[in-house]
Amino acid sequence: MRVTVVIPPVEDFYHSPMRSAPLGASAVMEILTFHGHQAVLVDGSKTRNPKSLLLGNQLEYLNQVIIPEEYGPIAFFTKRKRFGTDAASCAEAVMQTNPQLVLISSFAYAYGDQALETIRACRNLMNSVPIILGGAGPSCFPGKFLEDADAVLRGEAEISLPALLSSISPHVTREEVQALNVQIHPHPGPLDAVCPSEEIIPTCGFISSNRTFRRFSASLSRGCPLHCLFCSAEFSHGRAFRIPPLGKAVEKIVHTIEQTPGSLPPSLSIEDDNLAADPDYLIELLSVLKQRFPNMSFTAENGIDYRFLSVPLAESLISLGFRQFNLSAGIVSAESSKTMRRPIHLEHLQELCRYLTQSAVPAVVYAIIAHPGDTRDHALETMRFLASLGVTAGISPFYAVPGLKGFTDAALFLYKDTCLCAGSSLYPWANTLTTKEMVSLFRLSRLLNLAVHQRRTPEEDHLFSEILRTKKLHTYLKGSSGPCEVSEGKVDALLIRECLDQFVDISDYFKSSGFPG
Length: 517
Prior knowledge:
Layout: E1 2-7, E2 10-12, H1 23-34, E3 38-43, E4 51-53, E5 70-71, E6 80-83, H2 87-96, E7 101-105, H3 112-125, E8 131-134, H4 136-140, E9 151-153, H5 157-165, H6 174-178, E10 203-209, E11 214-219, H7 233-237, H8 246-258, E12 266-270, H9 279-292, E13 297-299, E14 304-305, H10 311-319, E15 325-330, H11 334-339, H12 346-358, E16 363-369, H13 376-389, E17 392-397, H14 411-414, H15 435-452, H16 458-470, E18 474-477, E19 484-485, H17 493-505, H18 507-512
Helix pairs in contact: 1-5, 2-3, 8-9, 13-15, 13-17, 15-17
């Protein structure tokens, strides 16, 4: 059977290169080939020139915080963009493959609307061809997509896809596929059936090349042993933590690297934020890869849960080629950590950051704000803690997806655009912080990062000094000759001042950055 696997376009304010690796789709392709089908990939998310988009009705509230002509180190996003082709062009490329079955892979619920647009565009050109949707996004809420898709495959492809293929005929019809959807529950919980460790398909993909190395991305483990209430991973991968056989993972990564043209050293980003839960496996994996590619380096740009990472383990990872540590702090407030079932060990995180700073290894620490139970005071506590670390800070606004505790009502999502479930949309799902408060904290995190940078331009120094002097945010606008004060209509001026008052109390932090405390 001719099966076309489709990655829809992505619409967001930004799109990390690491996100563009078709890891889930590559696993689907491998399963199809193994079962004797002719599989073709159409990637609608790749483009060199993203197209600027209007915000649309459901994102109009962001006009209150966006400054269109803004640029510089503390700027917020100015334009929403489409990364990839439009849905109609994507559908045209799919039609050219003459498929008997179309499988659409949607890796995040926030991009579900682009998946739906792609389905509708395909339907306009190929009305009789069955179209099935899968991936982590649809797994959260299959019912939202069934009006357009003939079926939704929930959970891991190693389980759901072979079951589908064994249930349909070689000349499958839409009616045959639709008949498979007997019961779709609108509020899914953790998966009951998950893929055994030995059957996991490790995935690895090429991202891009620069003057220094070729960049690759890999996803190996499944599930999570933790139960943080802000995470939906268990809806697509279950709760049980599993890792594939080491040889299988190494073979996939080595094959991908060797099949990619170029002679530059490979750099691998491991996308599993909890692979360090099995430190022996992680060390052995990197050791074997390092033997095969002596100049290979590693990152974990999706973040590593710092609670799985000790100083001795970090030291071992650095010796094996880790060149940057992205650390997931999650919740910082002790009170919020109980609400979200996310135990914290802040002294441990501080120790890790001190070690990495002393070792001259870059570190980024991400913290979540605006989650259920968050407060303005907790947010100030989070910012003060991030400032005390002296490393690059990242703010991750909480976003709901269907099925999370407190968000199981289908009515919350049925008539809302899925883009509201992106962190970059700053939608106040929990009603704990406003959009204006969130964007203020985002800008302040960028201010912290400006302080951390050892090499600043005179323009950046001037901007920083002006902000500290006035206790107000300033930014650069196109055509301006110097920093312009951000109007109180675009930020929460009181929150800005409260944070800056806290920051300057951390005298060692600012002195190390070249500014008096």
